[in-house]
Structures are given as structure tokens and as C-alpha cells.
């Protein structure tokens, strides 16, 4: 009996590995992609500069690891985004909810393109309306209406949430919802 208890308690072995998902993160320059991802990885956000090209971060969560490929949002880089979509299992789109009308329209156009892109259109989307802490920020409901998400994303897996680097609990919860959608998609593929 003692031998059984010892083996049960001490010889379990390492915990099973967490699943890993490859996610692409896109959005215009200044939307806050790098700041949000850096905070999720507990990195300093003091000297963040706009991403030129792309960067990859392994973002650990309790039940999964997201390998996030963040693509720079400058005009000179956006035209190459689609070259980095292959192999993605999910999409994070970050927009500045306090941006000018012109930038918001540009973000809307880019999101619509991503939602309809052949390599992304079947993937789960997490759309973060960032900078909710700024006075000019539009609410999540305003963003949802302005971006015409209901008709455009009908039949797709997507989440729209507000975010700010000052409330990482809210951001972590949003990413947890994305992980749930990724797990569901994984199970669907496994059943085929």
C-alpha cells in the first residue's frame, strides 16, 4: 500500500505539455500591438518603438502557449502582411479606439481585408479595441457598429473586446477566450 501511494504521489512525471498555437498579430502603427504583447510577457514597455518588419514572441498562458508573430503596421510593411499568414491558427487584430476618423477607417479596411483573406477567413479572430483609457476612445459597441462586424463576420469565430495596457487582467481574459476558440477549432479538426 505504501509503495502504491509513493508511486502515485511521486512518480507522476512531468505535467503534459501545453498546446502551442501560431497566431498572427496585425494592426496599424500605434495601435499598441507591441505594448500589449510585451506586457503579456512581463517585459518592460518604457522604450517601445514601432515594429519594423515582424517579431515573434512566445506568450505563455496557463493552458496554452501562443507563438505570436507580430507584423509591423506601417504602410511600407502592410503590403507584405499576407506573406506571413501561412501556418497561422488564429488572428489578433489590434486597433486604436481613440484614433482619428481617417486612421479608424484605414483600420476598418485592413480588418475587412483580413477577415476575407483566404488564409485567415476560417480562423478565430480576437479584435482588441485598444486605448480604452483615452478620453477620445470609442466604446466596444461603437467599434462593432462602425466596423460592421455583425454582418461581415457572421459565421466566423471572433471576439471583440476593449483593452488597455493598464488593465492586463482584461487583456489576459480576452486572450483566454481566443485560446478557447483555438481549442474548439483543434477539436473540430481532430474529429474530421
TrEMBL record:
State a single Pfam family of this protein: Arf
Q: Which residues form a coiled coil?
A: none
Entries under PROSITE patterns matching the protein: ARF (PS51417)
Does the keyword section mention Transcription regulation? no
Q: Which domain of life is it from?
A: Eukaryota
* Molecular function as annotated in GO: GTP binding; GTPase activity; metal ion binding
Keywords for this protein: GTP-binding, Magnesium, Metal-binding, Nucleotide-binding
Q: Which SUPFAM superfamilies match?
A: P-loop containing nucleoside triphosphate hydrolases
Q: Where does Mg(2+) bind?
A: 34, 51
Q: Which SMART domains did the record assign? A: ARF (SM00177), SAR (SM00178)
- Quote the record's binding site residues for GTP: 27-34, 73, 130-133
Similarity comment text for this entry: Belongs to the small GTPase superfamily. Arf family.
PANTHER family registered for this protein in UniProt: ADP-RIBOSYLATION FACTOR-LIKE PROTEIN 15
Recorded protein name is ADP-ribosylation factor-like protein 15
User: Which lineage ranks, top first, belong to the organism behind this chain?
Assistant: Eukaryota, Metazoa, Chordata, Craniata, Vertebrata
